[in-house]
Design goal:
Number of helices: 4
Structural class: mainly alpha
Oligomer: single chain
Helix content: over 70%
Order of helices and strands: HHHH
Length: 115
């Protein structure tokens, strides 16, 4: 279960990064800001649930849901770029962090199948 602790640490780091990204969203678009942060918190919650789950099929469902939410975050951030809330550099940094988290999730899922 070494992967899940790395993932947990990375998700926490990403949430702190996300706070700085969301500072660029205008106050009038509070719904988007809240949705993005809520999805990030949901990812953290599901990583913790999956980590504590002893049931393989239940853990697998949590992991799938985490992957879906990572894709949702990617969409929300892309939308922020389209509306010019974020610079191209911020978009790239965010995308790289999401790619890293996604790869770690796939690694965690793959390691579960082997065990």
């Amino acid at each position: 279960m070494n992967h899940d602790f790395k993932i947990l640490r990375k998700v926490k780091e990403y949430l702190l990064f996300l706070e700085s990204v969301l500072a660029n969203f205008p106050k009038k678009d509070i719904l988007s800001r809240n949705n993005i942060y809520d999805v990030g918190i949901d990812i953290l919650y599901l990583v913790l649930k999956a980590n504590y789950s002893r049931d393989f099929s239940e853990r697998k469902e949590f992991q799938k849901e985490i992957l879906v939410l990572l894709n949702m975050l990617d969409f929300y951030i892309e939308r922020g770029f389209i509306h010019k809330y974020l610079s191209e550099n911020q978009l790239k940094k965010n995308s790289n962090k999401l790619i890293e988290l996604t790869k770690m999730m796939y690694g965690w899922i793959k390691s579960e199948r082997v065990n």
